[in-house]
Write a structure and sequence with these properties.
The protein is mainly beta. 0% of the residues lie in helices and 57% in strands.
Length: 110
C-alpha cells in the first residue's frame, strides 16, 4: 500500500485473519494507520500485544474487549485505547466492525 493521504474503503482488499475475522487497511502513513476489522458473531480477535498505541472504535456490533486484566462489553459507538505492549483481544458478541488506528503503523499489515 502506498502512503496515500486518502482512499476509498472499497479500494482495499479484505484479508482473512482467522475464522470469521477479516481486515483491510484503509489508509496508512509511517506515523499512523487506520484499519477496519469485520467479525462474524462469536469470532475472536486473539489475545496479543504489540509495540503500537491502538485506538479502536466500534462501528457496528457488540464486543467483549479484554485489555490487560480488564474485560468490558462495548457496543456501537464505543471506543477503547490499548497502550503499547499490553495484552488485548476481542470477542464478537454479535456480528460487527471495529475501526482501529495504530501509531506508528503496523508494517506487518502491509
Amino acid at each position: 500500500m502506498s502512503d496515500a493521504l486518502t482512499a476509498a474503503a472499497d479500494a482495499h482488499p479484505w484479508v482473512t485473519v482467522a475464522p470469521g475475522n477479516r481486515r483491510r487497511v484503509l489508509v496508512s502513513q509511517p506515523q499512523l494507520m487506520q484499519v477496519e476489522f469485520a467479525f462474524d458473531e462469536g469470532a475472536v480477535g486473539a489475545l496479543h500485544a504489540h509495540p503500537h498505541v491502538q485506538a479502536s472504535y466500534v462501528a457496528e456490533g457488540t464486543f467483549e474487549v479484554t485489555i490487560g486484566d480488564s474485560v468490558t462489553v462495548l457496543g456501537t459507538g464505543g471506543s477503547f485505547i490499548v497502550p503499547p505492549n499490553v495484552v488485548h483481544g476481542v470477542r464478537a458478541l454479535s456480528a460487527g466492525r471495529l475501526v482501529d488506528c495504530f501509531t506508528p503503523r503496523r508494517e506487518d499489515f502491509l
